[in-house]
Hints:
The chain has one helix at residues 2-30, and strands at 39-52, 55-61, 69-74, 78-81, 105-106, 115-121, 127-133. It is of the alpha+beta class.
Amino acid sequence: MQRIAMVMCVSLALLTSALQAQADRRDMNQRSPGTRQLAAVRGEVSKIAGASKGMLFITVKPAKEFSEVTVLARENDFVGAAAGRSNEPDLLGLLSDDSRDDETITAAELNEGDIVSVIYDPQLQNRALEIYVH
């Protein structure tokens, strides 16, 4: 009877340690350095300031229920056209009210009041990864 109890205790101890090892491996996989959580903001550019040589702080003011977000971007980062914008010139360009429709712009050429979408990495001091103008 004592042997059965002893075998059950050892079996339970081995099972517990095996489950703990699996949980530890699962935690390590979830915290792997290759995964990161990105964030995005869409709104009006409210302020652009120089951060250092070749870098800009771009402050984006989203809808009124959200707070402003300041992202760090390179001056020469390309700004893409959002899906809502057409890359085709309309009727010889006469109907277009934005002269930048046909050209590629950089972050340094953004203006206050532009509507943008920014994908950034909060773990890298809000470094802008992609910028789109609407």
